[in-house]
Amino acid sequence: MPLNANAVRVALSGAAYVGPPGTTGPTDSETNWPAVVTDIGWISDDGITESNSADTSEIKGWQGGQTVRKVISSSEMTFKFTAIETNKTVLELYHKGSKVVTTNGKSVLAIKAPGPDRRFFGFDVIDGNSHVRIVIPDGEVSETGDVIYKGDEAIAYELTITAYPEADGIVAYKYSNDPAWSSVPPEVPSP
Fold it and tell me: What ranges make up the beta strands (E) of 41-178?
């Protein structure tokens, strides 16, 4: 396959979204998100980090002690980002199971001990006209970072989302309008 500089992508912009459990997400990279899905807000310039990990066990052969097979004993897909916009959605994600309520015009977040809080998540990753959309039908904030309050930086909420498998084992869907994803390479203009 020849090298194709036109297929080099940079995640110039994007967004992170959350919705209630059971939300049916879009099935392409360009349809609007459902009305029940909320844009989480500003994300730090570190962007979004996708991680895929697998633990494997080696099976060694008696003859020579060589590895003859590796068995995947567990796997995990996570997405990590830092929200830098303080809003109701971010506060409720960071403090799992807690809700911001307004009484007599004043808002309060009564922070509970964390408990299960599975939701729908999604991400848009944009490079000009190239658009990648990631849909996580069943996910949860599984880790949070420290919140630092200081005068020379935004209050930030580091969140790690773990994607859980559906009945068929699928943990996420990726859609794109990017021609580089096609099995037929795009035509490269002649010099």
Answer: 49-60, 67-83, 99-103, 106-110, 119-127, 130-144, 157-163, 173-176
Q: What is the pLDDT of residues 79-91, one digit of tens each?
A: 999 999 999 999 9
Q: Which residues pair with 56 in a beta bridge?
A: 72
pTM: 0.85
Please, which residues bridge with residue 181 across strands? none
Tokens for 25? 């997400």
- Phi and psi at 144, nearest 5°, equal -130, 150
User: How is residue 92 annotated by DSSP?
Assistant: H
The whole-angstrom separation of Cα 174 and Cα 52 is 14
Separation of alpha carbons 80 and 47, rounded Å: 9
Sign of CA dihedral 29, 145, 76, 67: positive
12: pLDDT strictly greater than 90: no
